Amino acid sequence: ELEAEMAQTSTQTPTQAMTLPVFSQLLEPEGIAPAQDFAVSGKLLCNQLPGIDLRAKIRFIIGDHIRFQLSDDNEVRRLLKHWRAELSPQLEGSDEEDFVSGFEDDEALLDLASDAPIIRLVNHL
What we know:
Blueprint: H1 2-9, H2 14-17, H3 20-27, E1 33-34, H4 38-41, E2 43-46, H5 52-62, E3 67-70, H6 73-87, H7 96-114, H8 117-124
Parallel strand pairs: 2-3
Antiparallel strand pairs: 1-2
């Protein structure tokens, strides 16, 4: 999934490049957080500068226009929480329909399970 994002985002602006897979699979595990104004500044904050290979990988995926800036650990953690909340999918509107269809799906699975050969064999005994 990350490779597909790489091909798609290598020539895009910072706003377009910051997606959930890029954030959660590339930046967050390394302790790198986009600045609050990342869309404008292109700054990535970290408490220690990443190695040259990782910086090259990040620049390849997000774009050449980004800058790394050292910041204190609390600020990096705060921004990681902010971006995790910002990029996480949100549940929308009425979930009642999904809730009801979930029960219908469960009933269909139970019917299929009761038709399984091992169940029929046990019921036959």
